[in-house]
Amino acid sequence: MSKRFGSLPLSIKISGVFILANLFIFMVDILLLFGINNMALELEETYRENRKLNELSEALESVQRAMTGYLDSKSTDSLSDYYVCERNYAELAGALGTRITNRTYDRIERNIRNMSMDYLDLVASTIEAKRGRNVERYRVQYEEASEQYEFIRVFIRNLNEERFVSNSDRYAVLSADFRNFETFAMVVMFAVFFAGGFVIIGVTRMLIRPLQELAASADEVSGGNLDASLPESSGNDEIGRLTAAFSKMMVSIREYIVRQRKSMEKERLMQEKELMMETHLKDAQLKYLQAQINPHFLFNTLNAGAQLAMMEGADRTYEYVQTVADFFRYNVKKQDVPVGIEKEVQLVDNYIRILNVRFSGDIRYERQIDERLMKVKMPAMILQPIVENAVNHGIREMGDRGRILLRVYRDGDRVYISVRDNGKGMSEEDAASIIRGEWSHEPQKGDSNGIGMDNVIARLKLFCERDDVIEIKSEGEGLGTEVIINIPYTAADGQEG
Amino acid sequence: MRAKTGLYISLTLLCAAAVLVVGFLFFRLGRMNAGEEEEERTYDRYYAVICDDPKTSFWQNIYQGASQAAEEKNACVELFGANLSSEYTTEQLMKIAISSGVDGIMVLGSGQKEMTDLIDKADAKGIPVVTMYTDNSESKRCSFVGVSSFSIGNEYGKQILSAKKEKLRLQYGEDAPRAAVEEETSVAVFFDESKLMYDQNAILAGIFDSLKREAPDESFSVRPFSVDDSSPFSVEECFRDVFMEADIPDILVCLSELDTTCAYQAMIDQNMVGSVYILGYYDSEKILNAISRNVVFSSLAVDTGELGRYGVEALDEYITSGNTSQFFSADVTIIDRNNVADFLKREDPAGE
Description:
The complex is a heterodimer of chains A (about 500) and B (about 350). With about 500 residues, chain A is of the alpha+beta class. Chain A has helices at about 1-5, 10-45, 50-75, 75-95, 105-130, 135-220, 240-290, 295-310, 315-330, 340-360, 385-395, 430-435, 455-465; strands spanning about 340, 365-370, 375-380, 405-410, 415-420, 470-475, 480-490.
């Protein structure tokens, strides 16, 4: 029942409470009214008998009067008057009780009835005697009738008194009852007042409490405490639904804030990474610029040289100068976007060619490349520094025995690029310290583009978003070194930056 | 909260139910109280007791005795005229009773013709009449309930002797001189004038008889006095006159309750206690107290309750069987110093 009550609309609940209270008061009022009505009726009843007796007394008098009137005048009018009165009195007297009980008034009533019948007989016989002009007889009978009339009058008065006394007792009881009833009514009214108040206050408070809790919660939230305890949803009424909606909204806000915080964190990390990349690239470019004279000037100069060589018919010179120009062009390009492996391999090709011209074909350079991977993206300026390191620290002293093997292959979702030399190799400690970025490289030499391994590794790490991007293998002193980098395989990447 | 809702609703319903129940009980009980009158009882027969003065305890006791007897026979007895606003004579009350069509009448007989006629009229209407205490022997009454006047006289005679003996004892001790014993004792016997006919002679004869028998050689002068009881206060005046006379009787014999009371009151007023002896009648509280205080020497009590009872029995028997005994005699008791305590106790059982 209370469950059903809980799911009723608020308006019905409030109206219900008031209707219930009103109904209660109405019921009590009806009860009190009924009581008062009852008592009023009884009070009215109390003296009814006395009024009836007065009627009887008057009827008796009129019979006596009619008889006297007829005896006086013997008129037809008075005779008919007598008949009317006689019938009336006989009727009234006939209605009196005949029972013999322990109550005095019952017995008096019976006596009056019998005496009245006697009296009426006497009166009738008096009238008869008068009509028969029996003067002696009607005189005697008139005397008797008059005496009887007096007796009856006294008896009626007596009965009236008896009734009055008994009725007065009754009246006193009724009156006392009335007083009691008054007190009772007062008590009931007060009880109803307090009970009604109690119920209405109680129910109203009960209905309003969820709203108060909701308001308190809302206050707390508006005060800035998003973790405020949420009110429990009560029932299915408007307040219940409001509370539920509020709770749901608060939960959603909290979730949203958590999500927002996470995404901001992510964005911050992304920005940080981008910044780092840029910093490293800038660093690389700065190094490069520090190391080189203006590359554009050099590049233009080389172009001019290449044209000159062509005009003079020196094809090899032309080719060489062109290669150098390409090499530098790549370096001058904007290189903060990833490039295809192809570009990096090209750069390494150019570099080796340049070196071979410089050192007259000392370096044997081999490639084992999976052509399908040539479009895979990787950061720029990565391979050339590695090859440069292999040449400088690996095979420089070996003359024409020096070999460089460049391999590009795929294993699962990673693309591996290996640069291997057969140079003097390195210790594991050195390899580890290079990977950790702690290798202190010596000052720039004339044949380096100035980008150190630490820079390369850092950029690779940022690009791949993982740490194991580079591996350095060496089988010992004089047995060469292999540097393997791995980048994620992005198959559908055809675009070039 | 749901539990609370339930609590409030149950509380409301409980309150409503409580109000209804209390209200209902209040009205039920209240109305029962209002209607709580004497339980009604219906009777088969209705007898009237008619006397000259229903307010005296003599008649009240007769009425009570009659009522008790009637109750056993499922009849109702009413002391006619007791509650009427007008004062009616016994004859008028007889007329009323006859006209009222009662089932039987117990009436104080008067020996007068008017009463006899009324008794005959009642008999003609089929209402049996029993005369009480005094008789209308010529009427068609079905029975007479009373005490034998002669035996009353006898009892008074004995009391007169006792009173004389007491007087002598007080004067001379146990051995009174012969002359004193033989000295004439004057006795006045008071009869109510209105009841002149009620066996005055029988009473006097009884007194003489007893005096003769018990003390043949003592001398007594017994004189009847008539008391004027025609007007309300004449009895009292009459006794005052007796004490104002030069020759105050030694012993007063009163034959009614009122006479007794008036006599002893007049005696106290005249300071004659001890020199005049009153032989009273009836056992009202006043008289009993007077006996216990030695103001009244002794009293003669008729068992009034028995009178009433006999009256009802006679009527009942007559109505049932058409015949009854012509005379019922009630017991007579002498009350004096020796047994007055018992009567007082009976009068006032609480002993206060």
